[in-house]
């Protein structure tokens, strides 16, 4: 199983998106009718997952239980949905947990649908996508900011075109926990929190200040709460300004405590509100923001539109792969020949190897385009350089597990299969790896060579290649590579027979 997001038929009517944030879990359910999304329901639970993140990267029992209980309730709604019609993503806290697999497996059991962990950059892109779809565009660029529980995403774009995106290590839960954990508020603690936020912004602020924008939108519960508090306390007139943030912080300083009841502030947001206000104040100061308006849409809406786009065959991932290949000057003709050979071999063994042909085709196509990116770094161990790039670069549209699987194929496409780094328990991924290894062998040089008729058979761990004897005699390097491959595969329990016709 590759855990790739699946495409559904256009007849799908109900879609859902679930954002497992560090502060809240947000569920949105919509009908897809006549090419449009019509929201049916929104549900939010304040789980405060990030509050349970320990210094060693583990999650405490209380946060675990709150999260899983919430997911059990959400699962009652989502289990009736068809596979592929629900997208569930985890953000900052799930990126930070040492062994998130245990949490994800438990979550998937309760929800009945796979859970992805996305990067901060991908989170930023999806937030912008959600706001761009739900807010009427204005003339010129707009800045969109989302303050989550564990991270803050800052984006800048025009219409649907995203130009800048950053994810910063600060959020309402993490700042509150770090600087105001015992509930006390002092001038010194506020200063330390403000300096920390300014430090996070320093490396990226100039990039945003180089661009002008016509409006600034805030897309998060924290920002909507700030707008409401400012309005009901008459700090500002319906929008957020720096003077309103200063007034809120002054109230906390006077009270000397974090759990401060403010007019317009809900009881459940009260414990982490100050942390979010400090983050927002730092953003206003560093990015020279005059006025911010609260937006209703955010990550969950972006997820819905991303899912809708995939259903309409406008998946952003192929374009992301192509851009990365171009960036690292991959020979597209060479990679195209490898991809064609992969598809030829896959078509012959997909059934006997019980491979999902749609998912495997997609993954092999992407891997074929990217297996040479490491050559732009160095020829020696280029597969290792390439795997590092593919796993860690910003690939729009991809979840963390999808990038890890692509990186594993890049790493293992040549030489010995690195059993310590490759997820050997993922048998389907291993079979895909064996296909691309053989495809690379048959296209070992960048110059086009005439390939023989390739007959490939496979069942379990037994494989057979039926090849023309004369062709093998005329291509001794390929024969030698195939003999080496027999040795490499025997080391992992697979057998490759070369049958000469």
Automatic annotation (TrEMBL):
Residues 29-307 form the Ppx/GppA phosphatase N-terminal domain. It is an enzyme of class 3 (hydrolase). Pfam families: Ppx-GppA, Ppx-GppA_III. GO terms for molecular function: exopolyphosphatase activity. CDD domains: ASKHA_NBD_EcPPX-GppA-like. Transmembrane segments: none annotated. Keywords: Hydrolase. The keyword Hydrolase applies. GO terms for biological process: polyphosphate catabolic process. This is Exopolyphosphatase. It comes from Agarivorans albus MKT 106.
